[in-house]
Amino acid sequence: MFENETTDNDTLGGRIWRAREAANFSEAAFARSLGVKRETLAAWENDRSEPRANRLVTMAGLLGVSAGWLLHGIGEAPLDETISSELDILRAQLARIKEFRDQTSVAIANMEKAIDRLAKNVRDD
Fold first, then answer.
1. I want to staple 47 with a disulfide (CB 3.0 to 4.6 A). Which of 13, 61, 70, 122 is the partner?
2. What Rg, from alpha-carbon coordinates, does the chain have?
3. How does residue 26 score in pLDDT terms, banded at 50, 70 and 90?
4. pLDDT at 2 over 50
5. Residues 85 and 67 in one domain
6. Any residues with CB less than 8 A from the CB of 65 and at least 6 apart, and which?
7. What are the angstrom distances between the C-alpha of 71 and each of 7, 49, 56?
8. First and final CA of the chain: distance in angstroms?
9. Which residues on adjacent β-strands are paired with residue 7?
10. Quick one: pLDDT at residue 84?
11. Do 40 and 63 belong together in one domain?
């Protein structure tokens, strides 16, 4: 195993289910995409049976994961869309806060200059 690789100890069925959920596929839509019955997919996800190699490779492609991760749990797991969306929201909020900080710094500097100018005028009078 490579240094940065992780092992996912979930079952094959659990990994299929997680990857399908992360890709926002319903059970019915994903089964249709694979050309199998929903019950067949459910059996795979519940570890009652296993898909053939060609189906596994097709699944990996549709789900955006490696066949190695699906089969053995080696490599990178899919990022849950909910988490991805939340990360995007948090990044946008942080960018706005940084923008406000920069604007505040400029406003403070302008106020300091105005105070210094007014204080100088008071001393000169």
1. 13
2. 27
3. very high
4. no
5. no
6. 15, 19, 75, 76, 77, 78
7. 11, 13, 8
8. 79
9. 74
10. 61
11. yes
